[in-house]
Specification:
Layout (H helix, E strand, L loop, with lengths): L2 H34 L6 H12 L2 H21 L4 H8 L1 H13 L6 H18 L12
Length: 139
């Protein structure tokens, strides 16, 4: 297996972890905030929302996954091009839409699904390019 192929596989795996952590974290935050309720933009409302959020285990679990997202994002950005990671990471929009439909029971219009499909085509196109063009990333 060539060095370039190893870097591509490693990069795609870390981006997959990045996407999964971001999407699970976002889903958990949405679920937790649904239980907390709508945020009222006032001193009392923000204080009450913060108090409720601090004691919501679903929100804390979401934050844990978002920390995993940041760690994997920093890792992959250390060896792959920004112009590769961000478009390939956009696959998360497709995952996010699917998770919102399944777990949050959101209605997703045909127009949104078409947009998600276009994003996936773009991810496939970018995924066929070299992850790093500036320097030699570690294997």
């Amino acid at each position: 297996m060539s060095r370039e192929h190893k870097v591509r596989i490693k990069t795609l795996l870390v981006v997959l972890v990045m996407v999964l952590c971001a999407n699970i974290g976002d889903l958990l935050l949405k679920s937790g905030m649904t239980h907390v309720g709508a945020v009222e933009i006032s001193a009392e409302g923000l204080s009450e929302t913060l108090r409720l959020a601090m004691f919501n285990s679903t929100i804390w679990l979401g934050i844990f996954f978002l920390v995993g997202f940041v760690a994997s994002y920093m890792t992959v950005m250390s060896w792959a091009d920004y112009s590769y990671v961000m478009p390939v990471g956009a696959f998360g929009y497709a995952v996010n839409t699917l998770l919102a439909r399944i777990f949050l029971h959101e209605t997703v219009s045909l127009q949104r699904w078409v947009g998600v499909f276009i994003i996936c085509v773009g991810v496939l196109l970018v995924g066929q390019t070299k992850p790093a063009t500036v320097s030699n990333p570690p294997v």
